[in-house]
Input
Amino acid sequence: MADMQVRAHIMLPEGVTRESVDNSVWRLPYAQFEEAIPGGRMVLAYTSVIFNPADGLIYLGLTDHANELLWTFDPGTGHFAKRHFAEVTEKYDVKIHRSFALDPADGSLYTASACLHDDRHYLDAPGGKIFRHDPAADRTERLAIPVPHEYIQTICLDPRRRIIYGHCYPTPQMFAYHLDTGETVPLGRGSVSHRSGCDADGNFWWTVGYEATLVRYNPEDGAVVTDLQMPKLNDALQAMNVIYQAPDEALCYVGTSGGALLAFDTRAARFEYLGKPMLDSRIEGLQVGPDGLLYGCGGWYGTEVFAYDRAARRFWNLGAIADPDLEIRCIIPHDMTLDAEGTIWTGETDMTGRSTAALWECRPRL
Output
């Protein structure tokens, strides 16, 4: 029977170890947690994760009002380390929300800043920024504010054309930022998606509107095409939540807000329904592993991991994202990455009922 081993990694205040704290503390409300571990400033959420094969570290994008948004986790030592992101930010940069992209050419990690402030501060806040982090030198530089006063919910990198595509918030504007020239091209509006994406031909895809119209932008001719809609299943709208370009084929895989998995042939502009691999809704992450299987995770409170054999067209539900030792379950996985060994890492956000966010390590056993 397919399943997985799961462990929650929780960032602790300096000098405190997991072994030194009784397991029940992880289920305390925030105020009581502060009493149990004095001085513990808890991270609100892990909203972006990506594995860097060059150094073997998991890079973490956080939601943190102290502006320390970029951290790493070493799977070998279990050590969290901040990357001094607050040195290049301002007070309104409080989140890295689904905004990581590794450049295969030089190993740079591109990221962007998101916000949580309300409309009263709209004109005071300068806008979300594009950053380049050099992992080897542990140095971050700020590149640009593509859209003044708007912050950035997600980015996608086209490494061949050196374009970063972005999705803004609170106004859902789309843009293309050209790394070599610094030019920003406005692309119109979009719907809130947790991951838009490029296809094998360099087209950029996103959705807009209540009927989830699919939009394509071609950077070669500048055309924006809006002639395709996401399918409805059982008369329910299946808005695109995440799109993933498989590395070895022309297909993209789409996880929807309703929890469906679709294959999308971008050249034929055709969707194929593959199945609903989870009991809950909202697929949050998709990635092909070293074994060639497509892995995914998602859910709200019934959070799960699944695997899909693309050749045999078979699903495995690998079970709940839950730590049996701490007796806690992941609440809303938010982004996902696989390391070189095939271990799945996912962040956690919007916890209710407990004070601590966790980075979740999931080892599939098929």
The mean pLDDT is 90.
